[in-house]
Amino acid sequence: MDAAEERRFREFVAVRSPALMGLAYLLTGGDQHAAEDLLQTALAKIVDRWSKVEDPEAYVRRIMYHQQISWWRSAWRRRETVAAVLPEPPEYDRSPAVDLRLALRQALARLTPRQRAVLVLRYFEDLPEKEVARIMGCSVGTVRSTAHRSLARLRALSPEFEELKP
Amino acid sequence: MNMDTQIRETLREWAQEARVPPGLAGRALRRRRRRRFIHLGTGLMAVAAAVAVALILPGIRGGEAPTGTIRAGDPTSAPTDIQTDIQAIADNAPPQRFVAAGRVAISAWSSWKYEDMADGYTVVHRTWHVYDPTTGTYLEVPYGVIAVAPGLRQAAVLEWPLPARRIGLLDLTTREVTAWIDLDHPVATVDWSPDGTKLLATAYDRDPTSAKYRDKARTSSTVPPIKRPGYYLVDAAARSAVFRSAPPPDEGFYTARPTPFQWSADGSRISEMAPGKPGRIFYDLDGTTVPPPPGWSREQQYMEAGFSPDGMLLAAAGAAPGPQTTVRDAATGAIVGTQVMEQLVAWADNDHLIALKCAGTCKNEFSNAYVLVKVDGTEVAQLTGYRENSQKPGSWEPVFTLR
Q1: Which residue of B has its CA nearest to A39?
Q2: Which of B1, B12, B29, B96 would best serve as a mutation to test chain A binding (most A beta carbons within 10 A)?
Q3: Which of the residues A108, A115, B321, B343 has an alpha carbon 20 to 30 A from that of B387?
Q4: Looking at B207-279, which runs of residues are DSSP E strands?
Q5: Residue A107 sits at the chain B interface (C-beta within 8 Å)
Q6: For testing the chain B interface, which of A59, A61, A124 should be mutated: the one with the most B CBs within 10 Å?
Q7: For residues B336 and B326, what is the distance between their CA atoms, to the nearest angstrom?
Q8: Is there a contact between B228 and B204 (Cβ–Cβ < 8 Å)?
Q9: How confident is residue B186, by pLDDT bands cut at 50, 70 and 90?
């Protein structure tokens, strides 16, 4: 990487890191430290291929999805329980809508990384199932079944969702 | 609201809560360099170590730090990125590898550019690079202001744009902000006390560099009303800040653009510039107006190095037209040594200073480099490469800090 490329890389990170960090944060279920690790790992990977990558943002996003799922696959990761959201948030005056969103966050944080990744791709990135399948490296059918199971688990984790229209 | 919409909104709102850590790009690049360094093998380690020693100049005695200063341990001598380039000094501009001599080091450097803001005014926007103790290099950080504490382990940071509503304490080793100190009045400058225990931050209601330029060359400008309501004294260990209001500057040049408050060299006072004599107004740490510190003179503020570590000598201007600087006996004022330099920036020890030297025959005073010079005028070493024009946007400016 020469000086001009390094400058371009730094500019890319400066401009896009809020969006990328937001994605990393969601993928890790709201764990700030894990999100930093995830984004840092993805950026370190793209540095090596910087001059060859045409769309750096898409590349970093793809690495993060794959990385998050592969971390989860490894045995030592599976033993960890990430609980960035307190299981019992303090009681204070809140509207029912706020309560619902906090409950939804907690439930999202308790999904598996793969389930959460599918929901993030589908609802946060607004990608069609075919594109989600391409990024996740699986079939459209697997995406559908994973999304279905994820939503069912969200409902099971928080009874409030039963009242929402599917 | 159906479940799809609820999930969408929750995810969007949640993502907003992620905090972007500083130095992401730098850390990614550093990881890569570490990998490359390991691949290059141990044979080059000796070369790296030799060059590192050359950069941290030998033969200079460490001066005594002021009482209470947080001192680093032995200076790190393991920069990781020099194995590819052993022409270490001449091309080290802006510095990529650690620059230090005796008791002082370049702790950070900034480059600047003009930036148009939404309010229609133009401000000076600095991009900062700060010393990384783990690699011995300088890494970019995304802050508007950074001030490194004596000891080179911690820095105070303000977020861009200025003024900022909180002061961060940045651990230079981990590159993480360990604490944010929230403020009621936004501040645009921050400086460590000489003993590294307190911070002084000047409050402004807008970026004090704001201006509306009338011509392309930016030779004339209109300055908006800029209020400077006071300053904060921050106890860094206790993470507590005390605000002291200050009256607007007296009538004169500084009313349009009030200058920031500064520490005195011994940390016992703070001061602000003022028109006329003696040129600065001094306050004690309770905000009471007090006389200048003993030995202080108006001229002294124009020669940054000030008194030698043992207090016996004083850096001073030389004879016109220059370039010339002098070192004088602090008690008698007698000239002890003369140097062919533009400025004396800092004392490396009682016999050596870091100075600014202009290039060639000094046709352009703003084309210059930092060198180490003895009191008697002998140039010992060049510390950085030459800048083409230190007054132009894009040029870099170092900050020297006790290490």
Answers
A1: B24
A2: B29
A3: B321
A4: 212-213, 221-222, 230-235, 240-245, 262-263, 269-273
A5: no
A6: A124
A7: 7
A8: yes
A9: very high
- B-chain CB neighbours of A21 within 8 Å are 18-21
| pTM over 0.80, yes/no | no
Q: Which of A35, A43, A161 sits opposite B3 (nearest CB)?
A: A161
Q: How far is CA B273 from CA A89, B209, B386, in A?
A: 51, 16, 31
Do B28 and A35 count as a contact with CB atoms less than 8 A apart?
A: no
Omega before residue B247 within 30° of 0, cis: no
Q: Chain A: residue nearest B8 by CA? A: A123
* DSSP-derived secondary structure letter, A12: H
- CATH 1.10.10.10 domain extents, chain A: 96-160
**B32 and chain A in contact, CB less than 8 A:** yes
pLDDT, tens only, B235-259: 999 999 999 998 877 655 556 678 8
CB atoms within 10 A of CB A120: 23
- The neighbouring-strand residues paired with B213 are B221
Residue B29: both structure tokens together: 């690049």
User: Quick one: average pLDDT of A75-88?
Assistant: 33
Q: Please check whether residue A166 touches B, CB under 8 A.
A: yes
The domain containing residue B249 runs over which residues?
A: 3-402
Q: For A98-102, what is the mean pLDDT?
A: 73
Q: A96-160 architecture in CATH?
A: Orthogonal Bundle (1.10)
pLDDT digit string, tens, across residues B194-224: 999 999 999 999 999 898 887 777 767 788 8
Distance CA A105, CA A29 (A): 8
* Whether the Cβ atoms of residue B63 and residue B349 lie closer than 8 Å to each other: yes
DSSP for B327-355?
A: EEETTT--EEEEES-SEEEEESSSSEEEE
How distant is the Cα of B260 from the closest Cα of chain A, in angstroms?
29
Count of domains for chain B: 1
B56 beta partners: B100
B254 Cβ contact partners less than 8 Å away, ≥ 6 residues apart: B272, B273, B274, B275
How far apart are the C-alpha atoms of A17 and B368, rounded to whole Å? 36
- Please answer yes or no on whether B6 and A166 come within 8 Å at the CB atom: no
Question: Which residues of chain B make contact with A162, given a CB cutoff of 8 A?
Answer: none
Q: Does pLDDT of B361 surpass 80?
A: no
CB B226 within 8 A of CB B204: yes
B25 vs A14, A30, A36: nearest CB: A14
**Which CATH number fits the domain that encloses residue B79?**
2.130.10
Query: How much is the pLDDT for A91?
Result: 36
